[in-house]
Design a protein that fits this description.
It is built from 11 helices and 8 strands. By secondary structure, the protein is α/β, with parallel strands linked by helices. Helix 1 runs parallel beside helix 2, helix 5 packs across helix 7 and helix 7 runs parallel beside helix 8. The structure holds phosphoenolpyruvate.
């Protein structure tokens, strides 16, 4: 375990809220306004932590308008992207459309996409390539199921998933990695910070091998899976954990704001 989060000065921590299929565009406007106010009101130093929200597609234009009009220090992203740029792909959303809304990030390969929509490692690589074609930073989600953990140990499956996804990454373009053990997502049973660090260190070693030492050192690796205000500080103390992808708790305003202000809990 690292002594302090100040050992990671070169990587800006990222706290990302995945709203999944929750909040319509009116609810999104109210939520983002309150979130920005809550964080400002508490004199949170936005400069030290990047905050991003991932609303449903139908909310993105409203969130963009609000963030741009009020110059809110919040990033936003899509929850998915098509591997294609245009054409006869009913229901898909092009990276070109996301980029036109100033979308900074996009989640790719979330376990719910893999589980319910048959997303394979090949599709995840193609979507990573699509994000980079449109200068959107892909947040590549990977993680093992409980069965994978039992059969292969903690790091083998996430490392293999990341290796496959990196096939689609463009040289020199930013990626973010989100390590989310599937057994920890929505279960209330988070990994321990030591478990998260063990896998994130293995992921960084792979990044060194594939992207080189400098790019690996600059790449943020997030932990996701039942992150709460009570456990975030432990994760953020770890050397290779640079932030969190938060699901359920990102919909609870005070709780999410408290996660963003994790430095307050460091040392507790
Ligand atoms: C997620 O869906 O990415 C996630 C981490 O969910 P939760 O925080 O609810 O476990």
């Amino acid at each position: 375990m690292a002594d302090s989060v100040t050992q990671k000065p070169t990587r800006t921590p990222l706290i990302a809220g995945n709203w999944k299929m929750n909040l319509d565009h009116l609810q999104a406007i109210a939520f983002v306004q309150k979130l920005a106010w809550t964080l400002k009101d508490a004199q949170h130093d936005f400069g030290s932590v990047e905050v991003a929200v991932f609303p449903p597609f139908t909310d993105l234009r409203s969130v963009q308008t609000l963030v741009n009009a009020d110059d809110l220090p919040l990033a936003f992203g899509g929850q998915d992207i098509s591997q294609h740029d245009s054409g006869a792909y009913t229901g898909e959303v092009s990276g070109a459309f996301l980029a036109a809304l100033d979308t900074a990030y996009v989640l790719i390969g979330h376990s719910e996409r893999r589980q319910y929509h048959g997303e394979t490692d090949e599709i995840v690589a193609a979507k990573t390539a699509a994000a980079h074609r449109h200068d959107i930073v892909p947040i590549i989600c990977i993680g093992e199921t409980a069965e994978d953990l039992e059969a292969h140990g903690p790091a083998a499956v996430p490392v293999a998933q990341l290796r496959a996804a990196l096939e689609g990454a463009a040289t020199g373009k930013e990626i973010v990695v989100a390590y989310e053990p599937v057994w920890a997502i929505g279960s209330g049973q988070a990994a321990t910070s030591e478990q998260a660090q063990q896998v994130c260190a293995a992921l960084r070693a792979l990044l060194v091998e594939v992207l080189g030492a400098d790019a690996a050192a600059a790449t943020r690796i997030l932990y996701g899976g039942s992150v709460k205000s009570g456990n975030i500080a432990g994760f953020m103390r770890e050397t290779d954990v640079d932030g969190a992808l938060v699901g359920g708790a990102s919909l609870q305003l005070e709780e999410f704001a408290s996660i963003v202000r994790y430095q307050k809990h460091v040392g507790t």
